[in-house]
Give the backbone structure.
Amino acid sequence: MASDDGYFLRGRSLLRTVQEERLVGLFYGQRALAIGALHPVNYTGTSEATGGRARPFRRLARTAADFETIFLGTRAEADRVLAKVHALHGRVRGTLREDAGPYPAGTPYSAFDPELMLWTMAVIADSTQFFYELFVRRLEAWEREALWQDFVRFGELFGMEREVAPASYPAFRSWWEERLASDEMFLTEEARYMGRAVAFEIPMPAVNRPGKRVHDLVMLGSLPPRVRELYGLSWTAAQARRFRLAVGALRAGRALAPRRVTHGSNRRSFALVQATEAGRLARGRPTPQLPPLPPARQAVAAATSATPVKRSAPSASA
């Protein structure tokens, strides 16, 4: 991908700086999805609108590649992705089938709901910052502010209204901590299963198993205590010690490796996840899957897909 005329320019965008780090690009999405699943309305809308429920990691890998295009690609490349996503989002609407924590059955959802758009952007922003500071260095206060403003811009590209987002980084951090501690965070049975699968069961070839054990430990340690509590994940002193050792090793490896290894696109890794999932399914091996929708819900989803919501696409040049 070219890099001279994107929405997030090298040397001027903190979002680009952090996303060019391969370690950040490899970790942030899984953490964001695991935390994002705590919002039952957001999770349900995403889950019920997705196709290919037998191959969820194909969709997740494609989404990761799409986001990387927006972060690192040209405006023309990003605009093609944004147009595709906008068309898909026009079909994401419905209601909760059953109560989910504080949200009663019948609660509506839409991909264009401002609060849900903010939540989706916020989990990405938090996870991106977390892993950059974990693997590279702590950002200065002005850099955190600049990174947050870049992510607000990222949300705007998908149609999020700027006014819905906290106006500053400190305001975002206060909002974020309040949300995580609130009773609104609730895991449906499916969200609990899929959130854990996304974090710890990503399909990888057998040769990658030693590295995956390190990956899973780092992912577990990266989750906020409240999130681990809701998932029922243990966190012991021994795990914390191993986490610090693993992070230290990854930081040291990054510092010693040449830039061409530590920076750039993760598309090959995303493609490997897709290929591993497909290969396991072809061999009849178990792999995390979303359960089929009930027949009645399938009919509703099909009808919804046939009549997308009419909404003006966000201005790519805004």
